[in-house]
Fold each of these.
Amino acid sequence: VIQLIPVRGLPEIREGDDLAGLIAAATDLEDRDVVVVAQKVVSKSEGRVIRIDSLEPSEKARELAGDERDPREVEAVLREAKQIVRERGPLVIAQTRHGFICASAGVDHSNAPEPGMLVLLPDDPDASARRIRDRLQAATGVDVGVVVTDSFGRPFRQGTTDVAIGIAGVTPIIDLRGTKDRIGYELRSSRVAIADEIAAAADLARGKADGVPVVVVRGLQLAGDGTAQELVIEPELDLFR
Amino acid sequence: VIQLIPVRGLPEIREGDDLAGLIAAATDLEDRDVVVVAQKVVSKSEGRVIRIDSLEPSEKARELAGDERDPREVEAVLREAKQIVRERGPLVIAQTRHGFICASAGVDHSNAPEPGMLVLLPDDPDASARRIRDRLQAATGVDVGVVVTDSFGRPFRQGTTDVAIGIAGVTPIIDLRGTKDRIGYELRSSRVAIADEIAAAADLARGKADGVPVVVVRGLQLAGDGTAQELVIEPELDLFR
């Protein structure tokens, strides 16, 4: 049995806060737990927040924003984007510098520390996950995995699901190629994006509007390590694109 | 706390088996549980299985198969496909008649009842979920949700995640539009594909190679109903496509 345990009682997170220390104090971690942390609190603790009135919109940002969106917010999106994948009105799907493809290059004004601020993705979410993991280990002595998540839309299907944007002490993909089924055929769906499934599972325990940014996944029998960068697929190899 | 409980001890499922009755006998269900059932056993119980030697490959199937795949298997894929979305060598990404976009239109030889057989997706996975739900209720008296799942690849990211292809007694999407965050902004990621997150979560407890086709998700505080068809997005509305 796997348990999805919401971590309640965390304070509002601000720049410079010891996020891992606060998590360690709020819950009893066990070896092999996977601690799933919403990107928003990671970004806030790292100061990846900007004041919207510090941004001077470019011509392109004004054009995309039209009357429907604050052009300064669109400017933040353009600055965070390595490449614009799709634009429709003020909506922008972009590839981030990490290679992720998501709405607004991950720029978000919801759950910001205060009005007039935007939250950006961490500079290096895999490094964020690793820092949190190391700090949790130092604080508690237990060996846990960490997954940093965000809510991404996706092609072909309605709605968002949470996915892994940074990981540490968790394997991103379980490769079952070569695993035979009961009658000896190789399994078709042979590479499972387990880190994304962990992210999605944790979201079930989070309650989006409740502000529970950390969920512990207990009971996974997983070994391994890796990065969320391994989940990014090169366009030329992407048969679904 | 949410629990993901694998249901062990189910026999190999064959056409005509009372799948819901077998599930009810193998586990103690509680009101509000969500019973997550892998498509493979649903299809087998419904006889959605064909013998590969009953298929006469078309010219198109031979051409796609080349030397790399059994052309009769490709023929099955073409028959199940409403539209071919992408083809590369023998690999085919297709839209199924249900509107899902996935590898091989869901046709699979792994975990087939015996060698030389292919498993197809259920004709109407939402109807399958509803039948299973009704039968579980009749057998146990408890009111559960049902999610029928398959493992789908997706654009932009490596690996597969399990998604919902049929549901009953579960809402496919939680719409948080209009929900305000703590400082009053509308939440950006406002429509959560909760049925897909349930599917992904259940896969964590399944162990792909272990043959545990049914997982109970306990502790979700969900109401509502709907269909997996509501998760399909029209191409012209699909900003990510």
Amino acid sequence: VKVIGIEAIKKALGRVNLMLAIEDGFVAYSQGEAVVPPIADLRFDKPPGEVHIKYGYLKNDDYYVVKIASGFYENSKAGLPSSNGLMLLFSQRTGEPLVLLQDNGLLTDVRTAVAGAIAAKYLAPKAVSRIGILGTGTQARLQLRYLKSLTPCREVLVWGRSELGLERYLKDMTEDDFSLRVALAPRELAETCNLIVTTTPSREPLLFAKDIRPGTHISAIGSDAPGKQELEPAILQKAQRLVVDSLSQCKERGEMAHALRQGLVAEASAVELGHIITGERKGRTAEDQITVADLTGIAVQDIQIAKAVYEALM
Amino acid sequence: VKVIGIEAIKKALGRVNLMLAIEDGFVAYSQGEAVVPPIADLRFDKPPGEVHIKYGYLKNDDYYVVKIASGFYENSKAGLPSSNGLMLLFSQRTGEPLVLLQDNGLLTDVRTAVAGAIAAKYLAPKAVSRIGILGTGTQARLQLRYLKSLTPCREVLVWGRSELGLERYLKDMTEDDFSLRVALAPRELAETCNLIVTTTPSREPLLFAKDIRPGTHISAIGSDAPGKQELEPAILQKAQRLVVDSLSQCKERGEMAHALRQGLVAEASAVELGHIITGERKGRTAEDQITVADLTGIAVQDIQIAKAVYEALM
């Protein structure tokens, strides 16, 4: 097996059309063409840590992929990053291992950001007046960067809990040609932005239905595990279009899980992103609609980004 | 991640005490010190293939291990081996990947053979008069080789379905200093051997209770998946001691599964190998007892062999 390190992976990422690759993944998933069994987990006590193994393949494809990602939260005491990750690509024809991508979690971060961009492509209003970002971490950066090719808007309002986080975010994103202001409260984003991306680990609503204006699209990225939540469930009820990456998964761990539990939306009211991409279902049909994309992250994104990087390297 | 190829792995295997490492694994497993979740599987249709992901760790240890093994049975058409396999060793302290052992399944074969040797160590009669081997494949070879250090007996009776397989087996094992004869039927083994190892993929009994003599030990290796079977279940009933590698797993997929279903043995009558090794439970207590070891293969064996190879390489 050839091992590809992070620098070579970064170079390869610059040469691939990730939007296309991951759109194809969402379509295959929604057509039932993806085989993605439940995540396999390991948990550790001393020191605390967790490992997630995601694996799967697209039917009639050349590959299968196994991703092993871990979080060991006391690593920072030793000056090490808390997360580790790698992806293994195998032949679906013979089972042979083809490549180990030692990406340290970068590919997961990127495929998550690309999903946000795809949601914005199909759901954001044509005229984005200002982009609102909740959070100042890795996804807050990447989501904004991957929106660049989709909208000429460079006006950004950001909210975060940490002063230091905000300071760093302003610096980095200003260097990336955005014009940023800091919001005093999440509500400000709802009141003045019509493309909002939520990227925090919050476990309670930060945005409320009464504040969301007509013509707004929200991509909810942070809520990727049971218990996490950034949106008041009434926002999903108020939206004219609720899009999810995976119906089965968002019922368990997305913003949709909260809205379903409260009886505010019906399962049938949500549409999978894969069906929007093919045109089987409509995305935004009017500028004044409210749209929400509930993105929890699915293994087809891992499969597609690993394939794209491997093929760029060959 | 450093990748270690098959030749370096073979060299490292010569420098490690596998019996000790894998005995420790069985003990940890039976003491509840091993975390080994259910196997994760992928299946493929075109061409047919299957992938098994086994993973786990021992508590208070330094490592965790993920093994990815595949079988693609049409590979032989292209002159490729049907099975592929690799093991990844990670730090249990930080999550960091330490090594990828690209062993192509060798370590699985070896850890399976070593388990047979451990069972013989605790259960075989003191005076082995003749060793009986059912099957002529990889395990039929390795089991015999790993018995060498446990008994001075070099007399072997082998039975197999394939003439060519028998011919090759005789040649290879004779070179390995054994003195072999071919049995016309499995019954001959029961009648003339007091240490028997069964290694076939049979789905119906090959050995029957009426033929098994007092003072015989049988290690049943072939039955590692639901439906597989080499022993008439009455043999387990007749045995004075029934030993399993994993009670929970043998209930599902070992020889014990068949005997349980027919009500011939009680779950409580089986003893885990780990409890025999520690002396908490007794193995053979008299030369004329019949003993059976039902070995289905557990992930601690993978963990222990991967660790042993890694530490020998460091």
